[in-house]
Specification:
Blueprint lengths: L1 H6 L2 E5 L4 E5 L2 H10 L7 H12 L8 H12 L4 H28 L6 H18 L11 H15 L2
Antiparallel strand pairs: 1-2
């Protein structure tokens, strides 16, 4: 899909289970997300596949429920507050990352650096976006470990 987006700014993707139109054209994205936002809902399919993970929130709902969620979260997601909070989270996880690498070096242990980068990113994004401490890097949170493993399995299925 990345290759298609590079070649065609907007294209139709047809699969046996779902057809969709994909765009990477900035003018189309602005039209959909800003100029004519009211006409482009997420729809029931999006809600169905994301509700277990994201619950009934701003990323899953449409129309009036979306406006309500957006209003509730707008104070939490001001640019300054988000920047300050995410900086703290990313620094904390970078320190955990460095500690894990340091310990691996001391014990002459092999580390899957790609897996560690993925877990550091996942931990940071979940903390900032959802307020959840997965701690998949250290593995101290059993639910975080299960989620991280499920995320890896789902990614491998693509």
């Amino acid at each position: 899909m990345t290759d298609l987006a590079g070649k065609y700014k907007t294209y139709r993707f047809i699969s046996p289970f779902k057809n969709r139109i994909c765009t990477s054209d900035p003018a189309n994205i602005e039209y959909i997300l800003k100029t004519n936002f009211e006409n482009y809902g997420k729809g029931g399919y999006n809600y169905y596949i994301l509700k277990d993970l994201l619950r009934v929130g701003i990323f899953t709902v449409d129309a009036d429920k979306w406006r309500e969620q957006r209003k509730l979260s707008s104070h939490d997601f001001s640019t300054r507050v988000l920047r300050d909070f995410s900086s703290v989270v990313f620094r904390k996880n970078a320190a955990k990352f460095a500690h894990i690498l340091s310990e691996a070096v001391k014990s002459n242990k092999i580390v899957d650096i790609q897996d560690l980068f993925m877990k550091a990113s996942l931990d940071s994004i979940f903390r900032v976006a959802f307020g959840v401490e997965l701690d998949s890097m250290c593995g101290s949170n059993e639910e975080g470990k299960k989620f991280s493993d499920a995320f890896d399995d789902a990614s491998a299925l693509k």
